[in-house]
Write a structure and sequence with these properties.
The protein is an alpha/beta fold. It folds into two domains: 8-148 and 214-255, Vaccinia Virus protein VP39 (Rossmann fold, 3-Layer(aba) Sandwich), CATH 3.40.50.150; 150-212. Helices cover 26% and strands 35% of the residues. It contains six helices and eleven strands. A seven-stranded mixed beta sheet has the order 3-2-1-4-5-11-10, with helices on both faces. Strands 6-7-8-9 form a four-stranded antiparallel beta sheet, covered by helices on one side. α1 crosses α4 (70-82).
Length: 259
């Protein structure tokens, strides 16, 4: 079985291009509001190219982003430099299963847009939840999002999912051909990605797979409670509406108990 972190270095050149056409910035105000309500440092797990971390750094200081992929972090550092946020945002390469911070460092830890679903083994998720619990201050908030209802995604082969221009004038035209596979016995959804860039007569194709674990909100709640968290809210949109099974957004807000 592949490791959950495999494929992300290869995905880095295309991550922002794809997300601009799918999720966009719809979740950014939610995490920004949480950041402004948090006292003390705030940590983002799997910060990637800085899509969330940079707006948080613009909103307040004391933001730290951690990611395993050096290719993703390279792009995040460029974004940080362009926005002159070196004093407000720190980027660290590391493993979210073993957070390199003293106990009780953070007022909040966030895991946006399904990053915990990249932990495809139960022991990896358990280790990460334990690490987050330890890194949080008593009373601190753990906010996470699950990609909604991955087990119900239709399987298909070689479908053109997206196409368009990447970059400004003189950039490349990109086509994403995607295959989705379900491994229901292991509760995994696998996305086989094929990105083709064309610049004039030149063509380059990059192929890789991303694997995600399929967990429901109740299943994640049980794991959070086992790790010592108290679940405060289940949300079904980025405006704070209540969650149900049909919601397009699955958000959980949990807390490390004060005592």
């Amino acid at each position: 079985m592949a490791e959950g972190y495999e494929g992300w270095d290869e995905y880095a050149p295309f991550y922002d291009w794809e997300n601009a056409r799918t999720l966009g910035r719809r979740d950014v105000p939610f995490w920004t509001k949480l950041a402004l309500e948090t006292a003390g440092p705030m940590l983002e797990l799997g910060c990637g190219t800085g899509r969330i971390a940079v707006p948080l750094g613009k909103a307040r200081k004391g933001i730290i982003g951690i990611d395993r992929s050096e290719e993703m972090l390279t792009r995040a550092r460029r974004r940080l430099a362009r926005n002159k946020l070196a004093r407000r945002l720190t980027l660290i390469r590391g493993d979210i299963r073993h957070l390199p911070f003293p106990a009780g460092t953070f007022g909040a830890v966030i895991a946006p847009y399904g990053i915990l679903q990249s932990l495809i083994r139960e022991r990896d998720l358990a280790a990460t939840l334990t690490a987050v619990h330890g890194a949080l201050r008593p009373g601190g908030t753990f906010g996470l999002e699950l990609v909604a209802d991955l087990p119900s995604w239709e399987e298909y082969r070689k479908r053109i999912s997206l196409k368009g221009w990447k970059g400004r004038k003189g950039g490349a035209h990109v086509t994403l051909v995607e295959t989705v596979r379900q491994d229901r016995a292991r509760r995994l959804t696998i996305f086989d990605q094929e990105f083709t860039e064309r610049r004039g007569r030149k063509r380059r194709t990059c192929r890789f797979a991303l694997t995600f674990r399929t967990l429901t909100v109740p299943q994640m709640v049980r794991r959070l409670e086992k790790a010592g968290f108290e679940v405060r809210a289940l949300l079904g949109d980025y405006q704070g509406g209540p969650w149900d099974k049909r919601a397009e957004v699955w958000m959980i807000l949990a807390q490390r108990p004060v005592s």
